[in-house]
Design a protein that fits this description.
alpha+beta, tt1808, chain A, 6-stranded mixed beta sheet, 4-stranded mixed beta sheet, 4 helices, 31% strand, globular
Length: 186
């Protein structure tokens, strides 16, 4: 069982050495345990988002990954203090990819809210993604069947809300439109 010193900042090297069978994230070097298995609704949304992105990206240079997939957010390699596992990640600069995941800010990230992670996703990760230069950040809410799309412009996110009746353009992938009716289908 892994124990943590709340006064220590952990790095990706520390994180990678943990072998307790649990999933973790690091934000500012603080370890956060990932929730147990997500709900069926969460997984259904994840699979559908992954399917739509994957279908669009087939034969294109960008790649889509779904959790668990490590993102060393600041691209500092083993010295990174921010390691997250977004639900959906799109990376167009393949030089950021290695066998361990993504080393640096992905082009696009989507987080599917759950009661145990909503605050972290909407506040802490929002700030981290914005600072790191993630060009597009989606917050997907299964309860309200909405997607809040944040587009990075001049270092700040501009917000665009969508409902389950909409199609949502993916701004970092020209021509890609996600059908939210299918994403939120029961």
């Amino acid at each position: 069982m892994q124990t943590f010193n709340e006064e220590k900042r952990y790095t990706y090297a520390d994180y990678y050495a943990w072998d307790d069978g649990k999933r973790w994230e690091l934000i500012d070097g603080i370890a956060y345990a990932m929730s147990p298995a997500p709900t069926m609704s969460h997984q259904g949304i994840l699979v559908e988002l992954g399917r739509q992105f994957s279908n669009f990206l087939k034969g294109k240079p960008c790649k889509v990954f779904i959790a668990p997939f490590d993102v060393r957010l600041n691209g500092l390699g083993d010295d990174d203090y921010d390691v997250v596992q977004p639900d959906v990640v799109v990376v167009c600069d393949r030089s950021k990819l290695d066998e361990k995941g993504c080393n640096g800010a992905p082009d696009m990230v989507a987080e599917i809210l759950s009661p145990s992670t909503a605050r972290k996703d909407m506040v802490q990760k929002f700030k981290k993604y914005q600072r790191a230069g993630v060009r597009e950040y989606w917050i997907v809410d299964p309860d309200t069947k909405t997607v809040i799309v944040h587009i990075l412009e001049n270092g700040s996110y501009i917000t665009h809300p969508y409902s389950d009746a909409d199609t949502a353009p993916v701004h970092v992938l020209e021509g890609c439109v996600i059908d939210l009716k299918d994403v939120f289908a029961d």
